[in-house]
């Protein structure tokens, strides 16, 4: 097995940092994204509580996450 390269791991760390900066910028500059984040903080736990089966929970939570992903790509 090939030993892990520290440069590869550092690239992942850098990418995570850039992603967090992008999400922070979206939260600061986009009113719609802020509204959707606040709605998601309410709807995410509700989806876990109201879903009876694991599939229902996954669908309810996945829909909320899909809205956030869609908003960040616009």
UniProtKB/TrEMBL annotation:
<feature type="binding site">
    <location>
        <position position="71"/>
    </location>
    <ligand>
        <name>substrate</name>
    </ligand>
</feature>
<dbReference type="Pfam" id="PF01219">
    <property type="entry name" value="DAGK_prokar"/>
</dbReference>
<feature type="binding site">
    <location>
        <position position="30"/>
    </location>
    <ligand>
        <name>a divalent metal cation</name>
    </ligand>
</feature>
<keyword id="KW-1208">Phospholipid metabolism</keyword>
<feature type="binding site">
    <location>
        <begin position="32"/>
        <end position="36"/>
    </location>
    <ligand>
        <name>substrate</name>
    </ligand>
</feature>
<keyword id="KW-0547">Nucleotide-binding</keyword>
<keyword id="KW-0812">Transmembrane</keyword>
<dbReference type="GO" id="GO:0046872">
    <property type="term" value="F:metal ion binding"/>
</dbReference>
<keyword id="KW-0808">Transferase</keyword>
<keyword id="KW-0594">Phospholipid biosynthesis</keyword>
<dbReference type="InterPro" id="IPR036945">
    <property type="entry name" value="DAGK_sf"/>
</dbReference>
<keyword id="KW-0444">Lipid biosynthesis</keyword>
<dbReference type="GO" id="GO:0005524">
    <property type="term" value="F:ATP binding"/>
</dbReference>
<keyword id="KW-0460">Magnesium</keyword>
<keyword id="KW-0479">Metal-binding</keyword>
<feature type="binding site">
    <location>
        <position position="11"/>
    </location>
    <ligand>
        <name>ATP</name>
    </ligand>
</feature>
<dbReference type="GO" id="GO:0008654">
    <property type="term" value="P:phospholipid biosynthetic process"/>
</dbReference>
<keyword id="KW-0067">ATP-binding</keyword>
<dbReference type="GO" id="GO:0004143">
    <property type="term" value="F:ATP-dependent diacylglycerol kinase activity"/>
</dbReference>
<keyword id="KW-0418">Kinase</keyword>
<feature type="binding site">
    <location>
        <position position="30"/>
    </location>
    <ligand>
        <name>ATP</name>
    </ligand>
</feature>
<keyword id="KW-0443">Lipid metabolism</keyword>
<keyword id="KW-1133">Transmembrane helix</keyword>
<feature type="binding site">
    <location>
        <position position="11"/>
    </location>
    <ligand>
        <name>substrate</name>
    </ligand>
</feature>
<keyword id="KW-0472">Membrane</keyword>
<dbReference type="InterPro" id="IPR000829">
    <property type="entry name" value="DAGK"/>
</dbReference>
<feature type="binding site">
    <location>
        <position position="18"/>
    </location>
    <ligand>
        <name>ATP</name>
    </ligand>
</feature>
<keyword id="KW-1003">Cell membrane</keyword>
<protein>
    <submittedName>
        <fullName>Diacylglycerol kinase</fullName>
        <ecNumber>2.7.1.107</ecNumber>
    </submittedName>
</protein>
<dbReference type="GO" id="GO:0005886">
    <property type="term" value="C:plasma membrane"/>
</dbReference>
<comment type="similarity">
    <text>Belongs to the bacterial diacylglycerol kinase family.</text>
</comment>
<feature type="active site" description="Proton acceptor">
    <location>
        <position position="71"/>
    </location>
</feature>
